[in-house]
């Protein structure tokens, strides 16, 4: 009988370990940095969000904050406008994308994204 109870304890510990490892892996993926490049289709300075359309047509809604770094633009993103070509580094948590850095690539393609 003692052998069976030892195996049960070992099996329970193994299951707990695998569960914790999978949970932490999921958390780590949320904090990973991602990158997207495309054209700003829409920007809302009131809600601090922008929609970036990639070359394959995917539209990414990305929030920006006071901690977002800006390169190639003035006034913390106020220089970004619809039609601007950008590269955005972001993190994703709970399905929400938040920009950590935005680079204005300087190519204004205007109405071509509509």
Can you describe what's shown?
This protein is an alpha/beta fold and 114 residues long. It folds into two domains: 1-30; 33-113, OB fold (Dihydrolipoamide Acetyltransferase, E2P). Helices cover 25% and strands 42% of the residues. The chain has one helix and six strands, in the order H-E-E-E-E-E-E. The protein has one helix at 2-30; strands spanning 33-44, 49-53, 59-63, 69-71, 84-93, 96-108. Strand 1 and strand 2 (49-53) form a beta hairpin.
Give helix % range. 25-40%
Low-confidence stretches: 110-114
Question: What is the arithmetic mean of pLDDT?
Answer: 80
The description of the largest β-sheet is: 5 strands, mixed, barrel
Give the C-level CATH assignment of the largest domain: Mainly Beta
What sort of overall outline do the alpha carbons produce when their principal axes are compared? elongated
- Give the full name of the CATH homologous superfamily of the largest domain: Copper binding periplasmic protein CusF
Secondary structure: number of strands: 6
Separation of termini?
72 Å
- From the 3D structure, determine the CATH topology of the largest domain: OB fold (Dihydrolipoamide Acetyltransferase, E2P)
Q: Mind telling me the C-alpha Rg? A: 22 Å
CATH architecture of the largest domain: Beta Barrel
**Assembly level:** single chain
Adjacency order of strands in the biggest sheet: 1-2-3-6-5
* H/E topology pattern: HEEEEEE
């Amino acid at each position: 009988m003692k052998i069976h109870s030892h195996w049960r304890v070992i099996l329970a510990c193994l299951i707990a370990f695998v569960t914790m490892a999978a949970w932490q892996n999921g958390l780590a993926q949320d904090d990973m940095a991602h990158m997207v490049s495309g054209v700003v289709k829409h920007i809302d300075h009131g809600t601090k969000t922008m929609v970036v359309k990639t070359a394959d047509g995917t539209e990414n809604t990305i929030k920006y904050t006071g901690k977002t770094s800006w390169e190639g633009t003035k006034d913390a993103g106020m220089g970004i406008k619809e039609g601007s070509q950008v590269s955005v580094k972001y993190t994703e948590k709970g399905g929400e994308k938040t920009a950590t850095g935005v680079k204005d690539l300087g190519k204004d393609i205007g109405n071509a994204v509509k």
